[in-house]
Each structure stands twice: as C-alpha cells, then as structure tokens.
C-alpha cells in the first residue's frame, strides 16, 4: 500500500518555498477597511445615520420655523440646525459595537487573530478605520443637516449663518463626537462581546443614565451628570448649549475622549488575556 506524505515545501515555481511575509500595518488597515465596507450591516447603519440625522433636522426646522420667527417657541434658531443628529448618534454607537461583536458572533475573530497575531495591531487598525470613516461621514452629515435646517429657517427670516459664533464649531464637533462615539461602542463591544448587551449599555450610559444622575443630591449629582459620557461629549455638538451648567464644548469633548480611551484600553487588556 502506498503511503501519502505531505510535501516538505509549499508548491511554487520549480518547487521553491513561497516566502512568508507577516502582515504589516498597511495590510491590516486595508483588511479592516475591506471588512467594514463588505458587511451588509455597515451600509444599513450608515444609511440610517444619514436619513435620521438629516431627515429629522429638516422635519423639526420645517415644523418650528414659524414659531421661532415669531418668538413663540422661546428658543434660538441655532439650537435646531443639527437637531436630528442627536438621534443619528445611536447608529454610530451601534456601528462601533458591530465592528467587533459581529466577529465574535460569527467566529471570524479567530482567523483575524491568526492572520494578525499581534492583537494590539489588529485593534489599532479597527479603531483607526472606524474613526476615520465616521469622521468623514460625520462631516458630510453635519453640513447636510445644517444646509437642510438652515433652508427652512431662512425662509422665515431666521437663518443661521456659518459665520455666527459657534456654528462651525458645532458642525465639526458633531463629526468628532460621532467618530469618538463609534469608538466608544467598539470599546463596549470588546468588553462585553455581545451586540445586544453592548448596545443596551451604550444607549443607557449615553442617553439615559446621564439624566438620572441629576437626581443625586447636591454638587455630587451635578458633577457626576457633567462627567457622564453623553453629557460631556455632546457639549461640542450644539451651537447653543441646552444645559448651561454642562462642561464647556472642548472641555467636555476632552473628557469624553479620555473616557473612551480608558474603555478601549480596558477592552485591549481583555483582548490580550482572553481566548478568542
């Protein structure tokens, strides 16, 4: 009986071994970009972000423009030119979570780690690609929301010029906030490894708990509320703050960025220690 033996060298020209080249940073970035754009959930999530953000901004400014013009609303028009992005933020959080939890759910995290044994390089590439995509899309969404909102406001004579104080900062701030918020979702996904759990915790921390902690007595409640991720980070997204007691725009964004960095660092430690 003939015994089959494995070849000692991989097939190649003239039987020469195929040289092995470990994946470099550029290779990992290209792979993460390919994974992000090839997943169906990415397209749907980003489409939801655009439609909700721009659509709701247009809807609310169309509905309230006459009241703002007459003064009946009791609010400044500048508070509404990016109003819909507040709800679009959920899509950014969900996308960031799916970037990592979908790999754990499908089991593709194992071949990813086999291809890139240096786990911090893989994580860094995921963060970089996600943040860059959300920053570019965030800028587009911010300016589109502003254009739609200002169109309806200008028809009633209460338009908000870009040159007004805080307008350009808010538009750029929305893009930055969406980018970091997506990375925040990725950090939660790293820690929890479950899409539903990470999304639920993220929505609670960003949109719910920040309001509940104001019930804490005295200055403790005030400061905890200021430092909650959603309250701190969103300060940079509005032309006029909804809450005058919150942190300043860039101070609050800095706090949120630091909180996100700490969360991702915790996720990185768990990624290094836990099995895939």
UniProtKB/TrEMBL annotation:
Residues 1-21 are annotated as: Disordered. GO terms for cellular component: plasma membrane. The chain crosses the membrane at residues 43-65, 77-101, 122-147, 167-192, 199-220, 250-272. The keyword Transcription regulation does not apply. Residues 8-20 have a biased composition (Pro residues). Keywords: Membrane, Transmembrane, Transmembrane helix. The keyword Transmembrane applies. One of its GO terms (molecular function) is ABC-type transporter activity. This is ABC transporter permease. It comes from Vallicoccus soli.
């Amino acid at each position: 009986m003939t015994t089959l033996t494995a070849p000692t060298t991989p097939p190649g020209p003239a039987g020469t071994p195929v040289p092995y080249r470990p994946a470099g940073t550029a290779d990992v970035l290209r792979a993460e970009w390919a994974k992000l754009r090839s997943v169906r959930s990415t397209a749907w999530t980003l489409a939801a972000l655009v439609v909700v953000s721009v659509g709701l901004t247009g809807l609310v400014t169309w509905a309230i423009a006459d009241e703002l013009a007459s003064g009946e609303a009791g609010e400044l028009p500048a508070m509404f030119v990016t109003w819909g992005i507040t709800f679009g933020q959920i899509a950014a959080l969900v996308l960031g979570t799916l970037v990592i939890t979908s790999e754990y759910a499908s089991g593709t995290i194992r071949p990813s780690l086999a291809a890139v044994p240096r786990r911090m390089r893989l994580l860094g590439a995921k963060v970089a690609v996600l943040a860059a995509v959300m920053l570019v899309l965030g800028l587009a969404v911010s300016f589109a929301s502003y254009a739609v909102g200002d169109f309806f406001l200008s028809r009633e004579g209460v338009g908000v010029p870009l040159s007004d104080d805080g307008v350009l900062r808010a538009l750029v701030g929305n893009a930055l906030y969406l980018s970091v918020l997506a990375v925040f979702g990725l950090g939660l996904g790293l820690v929890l490894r479950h899409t539903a759990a990470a999304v639920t915790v993220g929505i609670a921390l960003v949109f719910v708990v920040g309001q509940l902690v104001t019930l804490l007595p005295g200055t403790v409640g005030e400061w905890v509320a200021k430092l909650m991720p959603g309250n701190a980070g969103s300060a940079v997204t509005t032309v006029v703050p909804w809450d005058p007691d919150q942190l300043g725009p860039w101070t609050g964004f800095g706090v949120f960025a630091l909180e996100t960095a700490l969360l991702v660092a915790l996720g990185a430690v768990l990624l290094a220690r836990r099995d895939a």
